[in-house]
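Exercise (ungraded).
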Amino acid sequence: MRVRTATSALHPTVVLWTAVGLVGYALLPWYGLDSNLFTLSWLLDGYPLDDDVAPALFLVLQGDKLWLAPIGPLLLAPLLLWGRRKSDPFFGYLLIAVGATGVAYFLLQGFGIGLRGFQWQWLTSLFGELDDRQFGMGWGALLVGCAFLFLFTLGLAARGAVAGDEFVAASIGFVVAVVAIFIFMPISQMLGSALLTQEGDYSLPVFLAKLSSDRLWSLGCLTGGPRCGVAWNSLLLAVLVGVTTTALGLVFALVVTRTGFRYGALLRALTVLPIITPPFVIGLAIILLFGLSGAINLGFAELIGVQPTRWVYGLPGLLIAQVLAFTPIAFLAMIGVVEGVSPSMEEAAQTLRANRWQTFITVSLPLMRPGLANAFLLGFIESMADFGNPLVLGGNFDVLSTEIFFAIVGAQYEQAQAAILALVLLFFTLGAFYAQRFWLGKKSYTTVSGKGDAGVHPHLPAMLRNVVFAVAAVWTLFTLLIYVTIFYGSFVKLWGVDFSLTFEHYVTAFSIGWNEFGIHWRGSAWSSFWTTMEIAMISAPLTAAIGLLTAYLLVRQDFAGKDTFEFATMLSFAIPGTVIGVSYVIAFNVPPIELTGTGIILVLSFIFRNMPVGVRAGVASMSQIDRSLDESSLTLGANSWQTFRKVVLPLLRPAILAALVYSFVRAMTAISAIIFLVSAQYDMSTSYIVGRVENNEYGVAIAYSAVLIGVMLAVIGLMQFAVGSRMIGRRGLDGDLAQSRTNVSQAVVARPQPAISGGG
Amino acid sequence: MAEIRGNAASVEFRNVTKIYGKSKAPAVNDISLFIEAGKLVTLLGPSGCGKTTTLRMIAGLEMVTSGQILIGGADVTRLPATDRDVSMVFQSYALFPHMTVTQNVEYGLGFSGFGRKETGERARAGLELVGLSNFGDRLPSQLSGGQQQRVAVARALVLEPQVLLFDEPLSNLDAKLRRRVREEIREIQQKLGLTVVYVTHDQEEALAVSDRIIVMNNAVIAQDGTPRDLYEQPANAFVADFIGEANMFQCEVVSVEGDSATVHLGPAVLKLPARGRKPGPAKLAARPSRLEIGEPNAPGALPGTLEKVTYVGSHLEFVIATEFGEVFVVSPDVDTAFGAGQPVSIGFPKRGPVLITD
């Protein structure tokens, strides 16, 4: 007999969240602190009576911030459930009422009352002028908000939502809440501020005028004018990059799968490079090679006896740099699909008298459509969002992402202008996202069904094979050249002027000294380097956790509104980093959530930038795990949290590791979002490097980049080692996993392919 | 040494309906049934008939759209799987591939409040019950299909559930093993007095293991009875045809006296149990082995022409053309010589043919 714990008078989950809420309300400082909560220095700053560190309860008791008063009784309301069981309708309804009222009131007071009293006209007209104000919320507020949210989801579960499962209901509530707060709220705040004029009024005509300005949409360059609008520039570049990277990605996928090429593993290894390379580093190398004092440019000019030109700055250089940087991403998006086309489809076509060409054109290529669409979308979005390359290589060819940057950090702080530009950028990427879905439609491209699909992929026709080989070879050589240049360049004294070798740059950036306190990190780069490591280490596990939790909900749970939920989480993947950056600056600079200048905002931006990667990795491997495993765990008496922890998570270990390392690496290479969010205290490696480039300190910038690449190579190597040894462990015990009747197909054990990459 | 005991409870459905998502057609339509404690009851039917949905609703893996489910007399309609005292053996066995056999068997015990020592003892007892005492340290992938199946049974049994559910447990085994494993399941069930609900689409399997069979078709119960009832007295054409083979005849009930009906079938006149029929056109089902092949023009028999004779070793199979269409007859008498085209007659013995509804 399954032993049931004796029913306590009050449901344990109710006790937990009521207690959490009360701690937040009565013990912890309600508003944000200047210092870290965990240093406890706030206890000495007049706690609990001083306004800055007082808990809500003490504020109210002192007659301050009286709008916080109703929250207290509301938090005590769940105690009315004393002695009631979860199946009692009153239990569910009361919690739903308390939770919903609590969350609503909490948000209302947070957004309604800000630095200048009431934020909204109607509140003023209702209650009169308020001569008090409040700052950003702190830990106390955070706990109270969580308490209301989870009491609400518990109430829903008690009323039978998601089959009465508390854990699933709470998880859905949590993911919806954080996505709403950290993706949709900033984006809509940004939308709002796009309507703001310099004087602080909302004005549609001004907005429309700005939106349709020549700066954005001029077609001057076609009619001989000086330049085209930035929107057109961005679009042109993104389409070119998307098409080129997709074509190259297809070429590489074909080389690996359909030519009998023996060094496929080597090619795959090459694809790791751009993942660990901050994207603008390629741009730097291009400058070293083709810039005004670039080695190849100089040599070539000398050869034919003309002045070296600045031809590479602008569209040509950007195109080269982005194609080099993003082709491997396209390859990763293509390879799975190209391998996935069932060989028996192609063999069937051949037995139906199609020759190799006809087979390729009529069967293989159409079946690769999802891969093509995906690769194009990735290239398009990455190019749109790329910030580093246009900054170092753009010349007069302005694009949206840099334009946004200069609107924020330029001579005048034009928040509305940045918001409008970001909107246009968002419009393009979401448009591409929609176009992709529309193009793929509802057709099924799945060709691999079940196990045991024998047969091999036919080889390409000889001519096509030669072309493919040639293209791949050129690209590979060029990539190698780029990396050799970076490595070599970091030792050159002054590129283009003095090619003598030196360690000077490394010393400047990374010298270590000793003083009376021990090691002294003397180099200029150490501060940003350690910050980056710290932020990346914190955000990686959080990203993986949220991503996998979301994947679990998407793959394993059915609930109302799941389609919308899925669309929303996937949508965040189409939002460029630049847009996230700008919207965070706009949204989190003012109460109720004041985060700019902290490390938290960096962590948050990484989590929500990289979450789709975790979701994809999780969805991919979770779909491989038979659902009956979860169900049998449930019928054996485990609840869904225990099932998730004991069955799903262990089987997902490779995916977890991949997601972890992936978000870690992305956090170290990202630039587009964080360039807006870094502060003096929290500077990141990439923004530090870009800063050096802007100061023309190329040597230090390149040396630093080389170090970053080395560090990340080490991290990736460790990951390969960890996952790889596990694979041997599993297989070693049992000759061939595919032969045995386990419920986990091989794909789980195989290392999941990274789905998206590049810092952007 | 711990001992695994039965803990049987009854299962009751009251007007249960299940509709998936937005689909209009119910997967299970207004079903009421009662399963006594300690019985092995099979849900039998073609794929898509709603039998697996019914099973999953007992487990709590699917929630009813309307109606009530009671286990051991207690209403469990709203309880999720975790909180029901029910274990299930899955078609795919669903052994956790990252845990050893022992860890798999101990898994559920860990959530049931047993101490470490007792958990270990019970798991050992469970493995002993299924004859796998020495396999505790293996991974599921190192076991054969039959062994995996037994681990899945042990894992479910050690929890001493009120109800044990089997979802097509034999479908991944080869034919020889199937017979042995089903006998083992039946043996354990009877030894421990378990309530078992068993889903299969294999009618022979169902006849062999069950105390009672519930035949389902198109989301409703087609017939509910003992294996013998179902085979010998099918209630309708679907059951007659689904369980074993049956010849169907259109006939005429001319009169009903008490329980006995007089039925005209061509020249033949039969006295059969009325089973609630009224005079008028009716339908008759007869098993091939319950028909007798005889001399042409035998009195009270149906005349026909022999179309095909097949010798299959243990018996002869006949296809006979009659005014009611082709009739399939099986005869154990393999010594009499027959030839195609020969006129014969089909005789109806007293027991065998039954009146059915459509």
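Further reading is listed at the end of the chapter. For now, observe: The two ends of chain A are 57 Å apart (CA to CA). Chain A touches chain B through 36 residues (CB under 8 Å).
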